[in-house]
Amino acid sequence: MIFNIDPSEIIARARDVKLLVLDVDGVLTAGELFLSDSGEEIKAFSTLDGQGIKLLQSAGVMVGIISGRRSALVARRAENLGIEHLFQGREDKLNALNEMCSNTGVPPGAIAYVGDDLPDIKVMNTVRLSFAVDNAHISVKKTAHAQTQKSGGHGAVREVCDFILQAQDKYDDAIAHFL
Protein backbone atom coordinates (compact mmCIF):
# COMPACT_ATOMS: atom_id res chain seq x y z
CA MET A 1 0.00 0.00 0.00
CA ILE A 2 1.27 3.46 -0.90
CA PHE A 3 0.10 6.24 1.40
CA ASN A 4 -0.62 9.80 0.27
CA ILE A 5 -1.22 10.99 3.83
CA ASP A 6 0.21 9.93 7.19
CA PRO A 7 -0.11 6.11 7.47
CA SER A 8 -1.35 6.35 11.06
CA GLU A 9 -4.18 8.61 9.85
CA ILE A 10 -5.13 6.09 7.16
CA ILE A 11 -5.18 3.26 9.72
CA ALA A 12 -7.34 5.39 12.04
CA ARG A 13 -9.76 6.09 9.18
CA ALA A 14 -9.86 2.38 8.25
CA ARG A 15 -10.89 1.53 11.83
CA ASP A 16 -14.08 3.58 11.29
CA VAL A 17 -15.14 1.86 8.05
CA LYS A 18 -18.58 0.23 8.15
CA LEU A 19 -19.11 0.10 4.38
CA LEU A 20 -16.68 -0.46 1.51
CA VAL A 21 -17.94 0.84 -1.84
CA LEU A 22 -16.36 -0.32 -5.08
CA ASP A 23 -16.32 0.83 -8.67
CA VAL A 24 -16.44 -2.02 -11.20
CA ASP A 25 -14.55 -1.42 -14.46
CA GLY A 26 -10.91 -0.89 -13.60
CA VAL A 27 -11.38 -1.89 -9.94
CA LEU A 28 -13.22 -5.21 -9.75
CA THR A 29 -12.06 -5.86 -13.32
CA ALA A 30 -8.94 -4.87 -15.22
CA GLY A 31 -10.99 -2.27 -17.07
CA GLU A 32 -11.07 -4.12 -20.36
CA LEU A 33 -14.38 -4.77 -22.10
CA PHE A 34 -14.61 -7.93 -24.15
CA LEU A 35 -17.47 -8.04 -26.65
CA SER A 36 -18.37 -11.08 -28.70
CA ASP A 37 -19.52 -10.86 -32.33
CA SER A 38 -23.08 -11.21 -31.05
CA GLY A 39 -22.58 -8.24 -28.73
CA GLU A 40 -22.32 -10.27 -25.54
CA GLU A 41 -20.17 -8.58 -22.90
CA ILE A 42 -17.56 -10.60 -21.02
CA LYS A 43 -15.79 -9.48 -17.85
CA ALA A 44 -13.15 -11.19 -15.74
CA PHE A 45 -13.27 -10.88 -11.94
CA SER A 46 -10.53 -11.83 -9.49
CA THR A 47 -11.29 -14.69 -7.12
CA LEU A 48 -8.85 -13.07 -4.67
CA ASP A 49 -11.05 -9.99 -4.60
CA GLY A 50 -14.13 -12.15 -4.08
CA GLN A 51 -12.59 -13.91 -1.10
CA GLY A 52 -11.53 -10.56 0.38
CA ILE A 53 -15.08 -9.24 0.03
CA LYS A 54 -16.47 -12.32 1.77
CA LEU A 55 -13.94 -11.99 4.59
CA LEU A 56 -14.82 -8.34 5.06
CA GLN A 57 -18.53 -9.10 5.14
CA SER A 58 -18.00 -11.92 7.65
CA ALA A 59 -16.28 -9.37 9.89
CA GLY A 60 -19.35 -7.12 9.79
CA VAL A 61 -18.29 -4.61 7.12
CA MET A 62 -20.88 -4.12 4.37
CA VAL A 63 -19.85 -3.93 0.72
CA GLY A 64 -21.55 -1.97 -2.04
CA ILE A 65 -20.98 -1.33 -5.73
CA ILE A 66 -21.51 1.83 -7.78
CA SER A 67 -20.93 1.53 -11.53
CA GLY A 68 -21.45 3.98 -14.34
CA ARG A 69 -22.24 1.08 -16.65
CA ARG A 70 -25.04 -1.45 -16.45
CA SER A 71 -24.22 -5.15 -16.76
CA ALA A 72 -26.01 -8.40 -16.00
CA LEU A 73 -22.58 -9.90 -15.25
CA VAL A 74 -22.01 -7.37 -12.47
CA ALA A 75 -25.44 -8.11 -11.00
CA ARG A 76 -24.62 -11.82 -11.04
CA ARG A 77 -21.20 -11.26 -9.44
CA ALA A 78 -22.75 -9.06 -6.74
CA GLU A 79 -25.39 -11.70 -6.04
CA ASN A 80 -22.76 -14.46 -5.84
CA LEU A 81 -20.81 -12.40 -3.30
CA GLY A 82 -23.86 -11.41 -1.26
CA ILE A 83 -23.51 -7.72 -2.13
CA GLU A 84 -26.95 -6.22 -1.59
CA HIS A 85 -26.15 -2.59 -2.30
CA LEU A 86 -25.70 -2.40 -6.07
CA PHE A 87 -26.13 0.78 -8.11
CA GLN A 88 -25.57 0.36 -11.86
CA GLY A 89 -25.87 2.78 -14.76
CA ARG A 90 -25.14 5.65 -12.42
CA GLU A 91 -22.81 8.19 -13.99
CA ASP A 92 -23.46 10.56 -11.07
CA LYS A 93 -21.71 8.40 -8.52
CA LEU A 94 -21.99 10.96 -5.74
CA ASN A 95 -25.78 10.91 -6.02
CA ALA A 96 -25.66 7.10 -5.95
CA LEU A 97 -23.43 7.23 -2.86
CA ASN A 98 -25.94 9.50 -1.12
CA GLU A 99 -28.72 7.02 -1.93
CA MET A 100 -26.58 4.17 -0.62
CA CYS A 101 -25.98 6.10 2.61
CA SER A 102 -29.72 6.62 2.97
CA ASN A 103 -30.46 2.94 2.28
CA THR A 104 -27.81 1.58 4.64
CA GLY A 105 -27.84 4.22 7.35
CA VAL A 106 -24.07 4.51 6.99
CA PRO A 107 -22.77 8.09 6.70
CA PRO A 108 -19.89 9.06 4.36
CA GLY A 109 -17.68 9.34 7.45
CA ALA A 110 -17.83 5.55 7.84
CA ILE A 111 -17.27 4.64 4.17
CA ALA A 112 -14.19 3.61 2.21
CA TYR A 113 -14.22 3.80 -1.60
CA VAL A 114 -12.02 2.24 -4.27
CA GLY A 115 -11.85 3.94 -7.66
CA ASP A 116 -9.74 4.24 -10.77
CA ASP A 117 -11.02 7.02 -13.04
CA LEU A 118 -12.37 10.56 -13.13
CA PRO A 119 -16.04 9.75 -12.34
CA ASP A 120 -14.85 8.40 -8.96
CA ILE A 121 -13.19 11.60 -7.71
CA LYS A 122 -16.25 13.33 -6.21
CA VAL A 123 -17.07 10.22 -4.20
CA MET A 124 -13.44 9.87 -3.12
CA ASN A 125 -13.49 13.45 -1.85
CA THR A 126 -16.66 12.75 0.16
CA VAL A 127 -15.91 9.50 1.99
CA ARG A 128 -13.75 8.87 5.07
CA LEU A 129 -11.14 6.82 3.24
CA SER A 130 -10.37 6.54 -0.47
CA PHE A 131 -8.15 4.16 -2.39
CA ALA A 132 -6.91 4.24 -5.97
CA VAL A 133 -5.86 1.03 -7.68
CA ASP A 134 -2.33 0.86 -9.08
CA ASN A 135 -3.48 1.32 -12.68
CA ALA A 136 -5.76 4.28 -11.86
CA HIS A 137 -5.68 7.59 -13.71
CA ILE A 138 -3.08 9.98 -12.26
CA SER A 139 -5.77 12.41 -11.05
CA VAL A 140 -7.40 9.62 -9.06
CA LYS A 141 -4.07 8.60 -7.55
CA LYS A 142 -3.50 12.20 -6.44
CA THR A 143 -6.99 12.37 -4.90
CA ALA A 144 -6.82 9.07 -3.00
CA HIS A 145 -5.64 8.73 0.58
CA ALA A 146 -3.82 5.54 -0.43
CA GLN A 147 -2.98 3.50 -3.50
CA THR A 148 -2.90 -0.26 -3.84
CA GLN A 149 0.14 -2.08 -5.12
CA LYS A 150 -2.10 -4.38 -7.17
CA SER A 151 -3.99 -3.35 -10.28
CA GLY A 152 -7.74 -3.40 -10.68
CA GLY A 153 -9.03 -6.90 -11.44
CA HIS A 154 -5.80 -8.41 -10.12
CA GLY A 155 -6.20 -8.37 -6.35
CA ALA A 156 -6.44 -4.63 -5.58
CA VAL A 157 -9.78 -5.05 -3.82
CA ARG A 158 -8.37 -7.92 -1.76
CA GLU A 159 -5.49 -5.67 -0.73
CA VAL A 160 -7.98 -3.05 0.49
CA CYS A 161 -10.14 -5.64 2.28
CA ASP A 162 -7.11 -7.12 4.07
CA PHE A 163 -5.94 -3.62 5.02
CA ILE A 164 -9.30 -2.71 6.56
CA LEU A 165 -9.51 -6.03 8.41
CA GLN A 166 -6.01 -5.55 9.82
CA ALA A 167 -6.70 -1.94 10.84
CA GLN A 168 -9.84 -3.11 12.66
CA ASP A 169 -7.96 -6.00 14.33
CA LYS A 170 -10.33 -8.48 12.65
CA TYR A 171 -7.97 -10.13 10.16
CA ASP A 172 -6.85 -13.08 12.31
CA ASP A 173 -10.43 -13.94 13.25
CA ALA A 174 -11.59 -13.56 9.64
CA ILE A 175 -9.07 -16.11 8.35
CA ALA A 176 -8.98 -18.41 11.42
CA HIS A 177 -11.25 -21.10 9.98
CA PHE A 178 -8.90 -21.48 6.99
CA LEU A 179 -5.88 -22.27 9.18
Low-confidence stretches: none
Can you list the strand order of the major beta sheet? 1-9-8-7-2-5-6
Distance between the termini: 25 Å
Order of helices and strands: EHEEEHEHEHEHEHEHH
Number of helices: 8
Number of domains: 1
Helix content, binned percent: 25-40%
CATH superfamily: HAD superfamily/HAD-like
The Rg value, from CA coordinates, equals 15 Å
The shape, in one word, is globular
Strand tally: 9
Largest sheet: 7 strands, mixed
Class by alpha and beta content = alpha/beta
Average residue pLDDT: 96
Describe the structure.
The structure is a single chain. The chain is of the alpha/beta class and 179 residues long. The protein has one domain: Rossmann fold. 39% of the residues lie in helices and 16% in strands. The chain has eight helices and nine strands. A seven-stranded mixed beta sheet has the order 1-9-8-7-2-5-6, sandwiched between helices. A two-stranded antiparallel ribbon has the order 3-4. Strand 7, helix 5 and strand 8 form a beta-alpha-beta unit. Helix 1 (7-15) crosses helix 7 (156-167) and helix 2 (47-58) runs parallel beside helix 7. The chain is globular and about 50 Å long.
Summarize the structure.
This protein is of the alpha/beta class and 179 residues long.
Characteristics:
single chain; about 180 residues; Rossmann fold; seven-stranded mixed sheet; 8 helices; about 15% strand
